[in-house]
Amino acid sequence: MARNVNFDLSHPLMEAGLESPVDEEGVHDSFSQLIAEQSQNGGMSDAYELQQLQRELDEEGQDNVSYLSSPGREFRGRIQERRDVKLEEDERQTDPLIAERWSSATLRILSSMPSRTIGRSRGAIISQYYNRTMQLRRRRQSRPSIKDFSPSARPSIRCYGMEADCTDGEGTDGSKRERLVNNLQNLSVTDRIRMLRAMPLSVAEKGELRRLALQKEKQTLSGSKLPCCSRLKYYIMIAVRQSWYSWLSFLHSLQLWQVALKRVSGRFGTGVLSYFLFLKTLLFFNFFLFLVTGSFLVLPQAVHPPVLPAGRQPFSGLELLTGAGYFSDTVMYYGYYCNDTLNKTCKDDGAVLSDSMSNTATRDCESKRLSYNMPLAYFFTIGVAFFITCIILVYSMSKSLSQSFRIDKSHSILAMKAFCSWDFKVIKKTSVKLMSENICIQLKELLAEVNHKRVKNTMGQKLWRLMVHGLAWAICIASTTACVVGIYYFSDYMHQNLQQSSRSVIENPLLHEASLLALPVLVSLINLLLPGLFNLAAWMEDYESPSIRTYVAISRNLMLKVSVLGVLCYHWLGRVAADPSSIGLKCWESFVGQELYRFLLMDFIFTLLDTLFGEFLWGLFSEKVLKRRRKPVFDIAKNVLELIYGQTLAWLGVLFTPVLPAVQILKLFLLFYIKMSSVMMNCQAPRKPYRVSQMTTIFITLLCFPSFLGASVCVTYTMWSITPSTSCGSFRGLKTMFQAGKLWVAEMEKDNPNLSVLAKAHSYLVENPLFLFVGAGIFLTVIYFHSQVVDGQRKIISLLQEQIENEGEDKKFLITKLQSIHEQKRTPRRLTSQDSAC
């Protein structure tokens, strides 16, 4: 069955490495209608054919006089029988179904089976789709009924593969084709394309039908004399339609990194492609977060800047690494934002003023029109941004779960990929090359999965492998624990160093500022070197499946990243925020924001160093010195966990650094082009191709639960429990950041008592933590039920596949029994005819 399938990398099934034919149900429905019509209209003829077939079976064993008339012919007949026996033995070796050479009666029954006739009788297909086009035309305008046509126009699914011709001749097929072309001509362009796409015909026949319909449409338009206004209207409609299609094509070409992703998929497969698709997903998340914070926090404060204190530090260049110094008094950090209500216009002179929320503050402006409550905006912007991000993540994860965990056997996917994956609309040479490379690498992955054989190990080998796996995991856990303990004690040492420096006079501020990079450098160095130890342990384990090796590496790297982030969160919220005066901080929120900026920047710098030394220079050393042609393989697990680690830092820092998502966007942009260039130049495809249909789902799941959930817990704990700084930020003077919403609701209820319902809703929905637990429980319940539904669908699909296999075995059994019964009837009659001849 020929079909055009668009190859789109942004499609979720393509990210998973899966494709399925489109409009398959419509074709099966049409085949069912064909069978129903034939069973209703041709029941008597079928019975007559079966009676005729039984007579032929009874008469087939009679003697052939001309065959037995001469001894030479008998000798030649014996030689021919020996050759037939040899051919039968060869057929038995090739196909287990073919026990013996089929008789003409068996072949006739086989040829009249619906599975052998449907999809092959071109006249039946044309007749069926002629009826469907008539139904479509009847929906739009009144047309004659299909009953007005002769019965010869209806499809026939019998007589395929037999020597006798069907009742419909070539002239009837020609009339069917002509009527089908007429109906296709009268359909709209969308219906015509959909109808042609659903026809189970070859691409050449579909193209011929499309060409005839367009040619007849042009002849009709050219032969009819249209008025001037109608002709102008027709040309305008064509121009608008072509412009719309051109605009859609232009929008499709504007998709981010489309060609680069196809090139990576064609050379390295779906595993490396999943990394870049995940990076693209993170880019969109950060773009949304920056759009929200920039619109409601950064832009209003930048338009109404506060009065800065005297003695501001000049720009020295070190701020690009540390984030402190000159950047401390900018919109980059929490301490810059005021706790005032911003007013746009005043009644006096139109000047821009700011009114304090405290009762002791004086008001220089009587008008309050177009006021903007900055503390309230800060609180609700962060809360709404996290809530919408949570909804998007849960939806993406549930959708990815439903698309990835499917029951698709590699044999069937391989057949679809081999026969149905080429897009015949692609004519550009570069696109053709990219598509051929992509299909080639996907076929390699599917063939590797089909040919994969599980080796049955003995009990001793199983115990040995279990000991090796236990030793490898012990090494990984011990090294992770040692690194985490080292980070804990080093962060405590840095905290004590800050306490000592706060009590003394700092002689060299630049050196003191540069010393703050020690902890980010140590953490980034551990994140760079320890995955190499994990790879060494995986090499020692010697996994047979590359996909299992990737998943094990992901779990080990995840264990490292979660442990490190847990220690850092305790350092920031348990030490720095608990007692900021001990280290001489007036605004601990800005200090934590600077720390997160330093960690994010150091992670990017060490990623560049790893790309340079770990891939480029090692490739040159291996090629020039070691004389090896093998290049390093792209480490999917380490690079993906680095992305999740950086995104977690961005989510943690958006409360303290509203501009941090912009820094993350710039980092991801640069990282994409750097990694893309490094992969194309310095890496090679894995030796064993493997298909990772569930890797994108695992990435989204890890991004949702360990990463986003941990960041949300830390941000919620900060806003609900920790006391803000008293001299900076939008929440100065409040016990918690959460009180900004309470004060706003109380003031609103005081000004307008009719809004007491809103105050109660705020107290029940926002102030009560039960709402958060209920919301989280609802999300988890939705995910659980969705996973259960998907699991049930998988079981149903497996049962249906088993039923199809059983039905195939039943067909083989019935055909074999039919042949054996026929042979039993034929053998005694042949012996009787030989005795009578003697």
UniProtKB/TrEMBL annotation:
GO-annotated molecular function: mechanosensitive monoatomic ion channel activity
Pfam families (UniProt xref): TMC
GO cellular component: plasma membrane
Superkingdom to which the source organism belongs: Eukaryota
Residue ranges constituting the TMC domain according to the UniProt record: 587-693
Keywords attached to this entry: Membrane, Transmembrane, Transmembrane helix
The protein, known as: Transmembrane channel-like protein
Gene that specifies this protein: TMC6
